[in-house]
């Protein structure tokens, strides 16, 4: 019990200090919410209801574009929104293949009003129609028939029994709905059938154009469809005529007007033009809009008109959402929805101010006159800055102001300011590429040389590698390299050239090696590649790649690979034991952690974890967990590895900590070499129950590694909790463990107190990854949690021991100091006076 | 030479009926080849043969030929040029599966250790070989010592079969036992009282304090008289 008491007090002292106070909310953290690429949108008087490809329904403010409410539905990998209808309430149908959910939402608040599921017996192409409170589901079985079922939208009660309509023209992929008809194009003819009112007969109409024409929905005043051929479309009114207007495939009708977008090449400031014409009066108009530069090609999602004033909602190829007001052609707001799917994150320090940079270059020349003029110009600049009071975005003393560069899945790069609530500093769009990762070639430390970063990407069409170099601070391009081959492996070599640029080494699928920039220094490095279960190690020599080791992990799924962060520094070489002796850590910078899941006839699935030396291929440690299931998350730092998995036998998530020690003697203490193995590392392991469902895991990183380590665990409930590494660190079996040894007694379950949640009450939707970077302040790490939301904060695992508290009383200190100085002078004077008087006596 | 070649075949016939996993204790045969001439496409020559009779116990029979004069010279040259010595091991397991593994070390380390090397055979949890690595036990890389040719006679290889550990599970049992022990101890009153002195002995301290107060109040004159006396 005493131990438990100690433990609680220790917990209280360590953990409680990390919660923030109420008045600190939003002081050093910010959150930005996203919804993803918009699929359907409907206008209301006060709001704009959208469903997105992330399987989300949200309400946006038409004035500002802010999210009024947002509701997450099932996993977007399998479920997609199928229908959105806004009447009094918003009705959605979402799902995929054979399972659908019909839901009603209260439009002002976003609360769920009703919901019912629909499970189909057989897969097919589903189409949905809503008329009044009648929901019609059309299941198209290609080339055979269709099944039409009518439901009451609120209850799911079947109104009319499923009708099987044998029609050979049901083609599935070339069918749309046009209330109340179901329309298909087949064999050069347009077929349609009224599916809402029973007893309707299929009608048909011949159309001109070959088999390559396609159908698109068109929400006109009369039931109509868009017949698309190559890049132009015609409006076909069902039962009526083909309208003579040649329209673009992205044409949208609002009321009786048809709107479409066109590229405007006449005016380079306004690249997009909205053309509209009235179907009734035939009146045409055209408005140039000041579409923001840097956004991808737009198309109209939806719109509304009140008299002559219209609002058009545009989405673009880079998933940006824009609201345009007509007839002014003014853009009201833009939402960068690309940020809802981030691939890679890097943190960049800001450059030093011009002033400091000029001081640094002051003594580079030997010429006295240039030095003198430079000094004069620097001082004038200093004076100008002092007078104008402008300092711009330059580096701060503690490195807390950073630019976060993110690469998104659509191929758009963003520079985000860590201060100023995560405002976007710059964007850069690369069309048709799929980003893989960001590589840092040069940081901003080498003034006056600017920082440089490389985006490694894959071409969407050819699959070839793409290297895009840019300035991470300003977002300016430094050149794009398109390779003709696929990239197998790429990394940044550690040695810099004379311009402090670290070369990027790219290994092609054909084992060819290229260095960017090409004049970069030649390096010897060890590289590994993983092809399913074959792990292959190479030595990179100036004349090419040489295989040096290989492993065969057998038939398995590779579920995790983790290496230590390149910038990580290990401050303490050992752990001090209770008898004041040192147990040295096995700190191997070349260690790779691998996790595989393999099928087993007896134990269902088995998790294998390997620690492999990347230079020699030596399996330093391997372990296996039977009846284990994914998701597996690996974190590898210093001399330890932490992983989580789901234990199927006990039905719980377990977290395992593994630590490697050299023992009481440190071998190769000066320079570490993977080739020199004098003894096998001593492995300590400990396992715990984690009362949460982790979706992502990361570890804090500080400048010099003095600060304690915290694990950051993103959970499926939308919180990010910090777990001190001390809680997980394996205990020595035969040694005392208590507050004196700064050791927590073993507890099989990791307690997650609510104050350990770094995002306090701001739930983060669908967390994907947690990116961490050190600040210049040793105690602090930057943390960016990304998923559907972006959340940035700073964490200080050992509290901010190197910072004065905010409520530090400077005035009192100054007062006391001044008082002491004055008092000392007064006493000095008095003492002198007394001494004089004594002398006269 | 013939003997070495026939050995694996012989073993294969005997053991092929057994399953390869650890529960049934399989065996493995490793054919070792090495490359003594650095080139872009390495040529491997025969080095020896290792038979691990029992993967569970890790017993191994090592058969390696003494180095020829030419091989000695080649190895010395490799070491002198700080090149790499590479081995290729072909593993035939008891279920007939064949795998080839590469491993590379610094030639000078091999020479300085006087051909005393270690072969680590890593197994997964089923007892399948996942990797074969050649190691030299040393606390530093090459020291640049001169090694005479007479010391480069024959490999003295030690084989280490390394099994996969069984992963730890949360130790709830002993924790619950510990809690119960503490509970029992508390019930028996054996638990150490770590309250402060005040909390523990307040029932003695309070009467004493009250007594003192009462006595000082009952005798105010004496106190006042004393005070007056001092003032005078």
UniProtKB/TrEMBL annotation, chain A:
Listed GO CC annotations: EMC complex
Keyword field: Endoplasmic reticulum, Glycoprotein, Membrane, Signal, Transmembrane, Transmembrane helix
Membrane topology: Single-pass type I membrane protein
Family annotation (SUPFAM superfamilies): Quinoprotein alcohol dehydrogenase-like
Signal peptide feature range: 1-19
Source species, domain of life: Eukaryota
Domain ER membrane protein complex subunit 1 C-terminal: 637-840
Location(s) in or outside the cell: Endoplasmic reticulum membrane
Classification via InterPro entries: Beta-prop_EMC1_1st, EMC1, EMC1_C, Quinoprotein_ADH-like_sf, WD40/YVTN_repeat-like_dom_sf
Annotated EMC1 first beta-propeller domain residues: 19-121
Membrane-spanning intervals of the chain: 812-831
PANTHER family: ER MEMBRANE PROTEIN COMPLEX SUBUNIT 1
Record family assignment: Belongs to the EMC1 family.
Subunit structure as annotated in this protein's UniProt entry: Component of the ER membrane protein complex (EMC).
Protein name: ER membrane protein complex subunit 1
Organism, scientific name: Tribolium castaneum (Red flour beetle)
Biological classification of the source: Eukaryota, Metazoa, Ecdysozoa, Arthropoda, Hexapoda
Gene this chain is encoded by: AUGUSTUS-3.0.2_02407
TrEMBL record, chain B:
Localization, UniProt: Endoplasmic reticulum membrane
Entry GO CC: EMC complex
Membrane topology qualifier: Single-pass type I membrane protein
Superkingdom as given in the UniProt entry: Eukaryota
Keyword Membrane: yes
Keywords, alphabetical: Endoplasmic reticulum, Membrane, Signal, Transmembrane, Transmembrane helix
Signal sequence segment: 1-19
Main location: endoplasmic reticulum
PANTHER family assigned: CHROMATIN COMPLEXES SUBUNIT BAP18-RELATED (PTHR21397), ER MEMBRANE PROTEIN COMPLEX SUBUNIT 10 (PTHR21397:SF4)
Protein family membership: Belongs to the EMC10 family.
Protein name stated in the entry: ER membrane protein complex subunit 10
Source organism: Tribolium castaneum
